[in-house]
Amino acid sequence: MWDLIQKGGPLDENSMYCNLVQCDHFADTCVIAELDGEIVGWISAFIPPDAPDTLFVWQVAVGESARGRGVAKKMLTELFDRPICADVTQLKTTITADNEASWALFNSFAENMDGELDHETHYEKDVHFGGKHATEYMVTISDIESASENEQQPNADVI
C-alpha cells in the first residue's frame, strides 16, 4: 500500500506512520483494491466526529495498471455500502484545480449516486500554504443515494 501511495500521482506525501495509523484506526473507512494479487488501489477516509452524516475522503490512489478501469469508483461505492456509512448522506474531499483525474472521479461518482456536487475554495495557496501548494477546493457531494447495484463493476477485488 505504501508503495502505491508514493507512486499515486499528485498526492501529498504522508509518513508511513500516518498511513499505518489510518489502517489501524480508520480501517472501516479505508479500502484497498487488488488485481491479480497486487494492490492497485487505496482510499483513506473517515467520518468526522462532528459530522456523522459525512464521509471525508483523504486520499485516492490507483496504480497505473488499473487506471481507467473504474477501480476508484468501485472503492468509493464499496465504502458507501459498508455498515459504518449507513447514515452517511454526503461526501467531502479537497481537490486542487489541476487534478483532472479527481474531478472526473468525483463528478462521475456524484452522477452515479444521484448526488449533487458543489465546490468552494477551502485552503488557499497564499493564505494557508504560503504560496507553496495549490489552492484546495472543498468538494461536497450531497443527497447521496446508494447505487452500487446499478454500477458496472471492474474486474478488481475490493477489500
From TrEMBL:
Keywords annotated in UniProt: Acyltransferase, Transferase
BP GO annotations: ectoine biosynthetic process
SUPFAM superfamilies: Acyl-CoA N-acyltransferases (Nat) (SSF55729)
Coiled-coil annotated spans: none
Pfam families: Acetyltransf_1
TM region positions: none
CDD domains in the cross-refs: NAT_SF (cd04301)
Highest taxon listed in the record's lineage: Bacteria
One of the record's GO molecular function terms: diaminobutyrate acetyltransferase activity
EC number: 2.3.1.178
InterPro entries tied to this protein: Acyl_CoA_acyltransferase (IPR016181), Ectoine_EctA (IPR012772), GNAT_dom (IPR000182)
Enzyme class: transferase
Domain (N-acetyltransferase): residue spans on this chain: 1-128
Pathway assigned to this chain's UniProt record: Amine and polyamine biosynthesis; ectoine biosynthesis; L-ectoine from L-aspartate 4-semialdehyde: step 2/3
Similarity comment text for this entry: Belongs to the acetyltransferase family. EctA subfamily.
Protein's name according to its UniProt entry: L-2,4-diaminobutyric acid acetyltransferase
Highest classification ranks of the organism: Bacteria, Pseudomonadati, Pseudomonadota, Alphaproteobacteria, Rhodobacterales
